């Protein structure tokens, strides 16, 4: 076995796709990494709650009161008071009758799609949907089809061509994790209603961030909850803990409890974490200034980075804390050479790291060829001084690398 795996790993290295984990210590966004201070712009801790002492306190209290682990699955004896309370609060936040906890967003997506669809059914995905939604479709044994990114018209055409199929579920991220843009829910909902398709939104990156009360993409766009059959939210991003939930109708939640294998056959989320997440929800409700500060960072980042266009670096049309900067074609090593901007994205990221600034380089196959990018994620714990540091580091790195004839 090892020789087969070693050969596969070698191919991964050859293709420059080999990824390294970094071990950090400390609390983000200020980490120590290999003895160096790093200011991170790559976490999904959008409201800065993961390091909030109030959550740490609630976690410790929850552990003392309910234990650190659930000890069993929800249907055996792992479903406690903390879970029950959190589900009620999450239902209220998202505007649905009920919510159901899962241990991760990945599992929640597997759980919903594999319960709603089976062989012969179709899941129609936005082309940029998260990998967990695609894996969920495979687990369900359903046919996977895609529509053009954010295009309700293309979705409608494909739905029409599916007429006669047993069942169709339209699936879209709320906020797209690689581009940072947001689904246009109104026309999508209308098309699904017209063609009697079900609609599911994965709002992992919208919950807590978008909407007046942090209720997510649906709230921000003023769509009534009953028009979206299932909404998935995660606890590990803006809410600063871990886990996820599905929000929907009474019937959907009962069906998941009865039939969803990724719900049934796993230990429940830690009750201490469920308890701590109640404190996250208090903060989401009581401190809207976090969302306001985050929005001001996003606006300033976009305004200042737009002056970098001389370097053939391009902001994508994102108004969310996910801000990708696409490395344009003039960064290619030679005209027509594939992957040149991929190398530039890596070189720019490395130069930023040298300056103690940490962002992600996102490359194919995660994004299409020719759209390699640096992805910055902003958080309410970043200060305007942090942003100054990032902007001057980015400018400096781009200038230095472009002076080397862009042969990076
Ligand atoms: N959906 C989306 C859109 C995501 O970006 C992610 C995580 N990156 C997930 C689901 C999975 O959530 P979790 O990390 O809680 O498993």
TrEMBL record:
Domain of life: Bacteria
Keyword presence, Transferase: yes
Transmembrane segments: none
Record-listed pyridoxal 5'-phosphate binding positions: 105-106, 177, 205, 234
Binding partners and assembly: Homodimer.
Any GO molecular function: 8-amino-7-oxononanoate synthase activity
Leading EC class: transferase
Function per UniProt: Catalyzes the decarboxylative condensation of pimeloyl-[acyl-carrier protein] and L-alanine to produce 8-amino-7-oxononanoate (AON), [acyl-carrier protein], and carbon dioxide.
Source organism per UniProt: Salinicola lusitanus
Pathway(s) the chain acts in: Cofactor biosynthesis; biotin biosynthesis
Pfam family, one: Aminotran_1_2
NCBIfam families referenced in this protein's UniProt entry, alphabetically: bioF
Cofactor(s) required for function per UniProt: pyridoxal 5'-phosphate
Positions of substrate binding: 19, 130, 366
EC number, UniProt record: 2.3.1.47
Family: Belongs to the class-II pyridoxal-phosphate-dependent aminotransferase family. BioF subfamily.
Keyword Glycoprotein: no
Keyword line: Acyltransferase, Biotin biosynthesis, Pyridoxal phosphate, Transferase
Span of domain Aminotransferase class I/classII large: 37-392
Reaction catalysed by this enzyme: 6-carboxyhexanoyl-[ACP] + L-alanine + H(+) = (8S)-8-amino-7-oxononanoate + holo-[ACP] + CO2
Official protein name in the record: 8-amino-7-oxononanoate synthase
Modification type N6-(pyridoxal phosphate)lysine: residues: 237
